Amino acid sequence: MKIKLEDNTELTVTESCTATTITAEFDTAVEIEDNRQKLTDKNLSEFKFVNDNGNIIGNYENYTFDNVTYTEKDNKFIAVYHLHKYSDIEVRLNAIEEGQATQNDAIAEMSEVIYSE
Is beta strand 63-73 parallel, antiparallel or unpaired with respect to 76-85? Predict the structure, then answer.
């Protein structure tokens, strides 16, 4: 089974995954961190689980990464990535903050043009 993130990155995961826990096996701890870095808010804004036949078995929106735990067994690392779903208020607040950042960038650019003359 795989998880397909918003940017179309696909990660191989185990069948025991849920919307709030993603379980995967790795050969090294470095791979755990490499995959964790892909679990950005943008990538978790929309993701899906896809079975080995390519069929979508679950669509999810507005999640965020909380933490990762792992165990080592038989020279394999089993990582569990913990997520939570943003509340409606958190989704709205994130959109406002994103819009404000865009406005701040536009104001800064305008200031540079005005004061550089």
Answer: antiparallel
